[in-house]
Amino acid sequence: MRAGLTKHSVMIAGHRTSVSLEDPFWAALREVAEARGQSVQALIGAIDAGRGGQNLSSAIRVFVLEAVRAPPIQQM
């Protein structure tokens, strides 16, 4: 997988912005969004809402890292 930066435009709270992430982070973000039944844009909006003053791209990377590190949910 290529590790170069890719920029995507997203709409957050009615404002268009661009986010630059490495391709593996985009792929992992898509996987997390799909697993949660959300669009990538909706997931980015949720990350944006909780990031405080942190840079959005950094907040997404940290979110993806935490999602990957989280233990799988046990099915009953």
Description:
InterPro entries: RHH_dom (IPR027373), RHH_sf (IPR038268). Residues 6-67 form the Ribbon-helix-helix domain. Pfam families: RHH_4 (PF13467). This is Ribbon-helix-helix domain-containing protein. The chain has 76 residues and is α+β, with helices and mostly antiparallel strands. The protein has one domain (5-69): protein bp1543 (Ribbon-helix-helix fold), CATH 1.10.3990. Helix content is 50%, strand content 21%. It is built from 3 helices and 2 strands. It has helices at 23-36, 40-49, 56-69; strands at 5-12, 15-22. Strand 1 (5-12) and strand 2 (15-22) form a beta hairpin. It is globular. The N and C termini lie far apart (35 Å).
Quick summary:
InterPro entries: RHH_dom, RHH_sf. The chain is α+β, with helices and mostly antiparallel strands.
Annotation, overall tally of beta strands: 2
Would you state the CATH class? Answer: Mainly Alpha
Give the mean pLDDT.
Answer: 89
Number of H/I helices: 3
| Unreliable segments of 5+ consecutive residues | none
| CA-atom Rg in angstroms | 13 Å
Given the C-alpha coordinates, what overall shape results?
globular
Structural class designation: alpha+beta
Question: What is the total domain count?
Answer: 1
What portion of the residues fall into strands of 2 or more residues?
Answer: 15-25%
- The spatial strand order of the largest sheet comes to 1-2
Provide the CATH architecture: Orthogonal Bundle
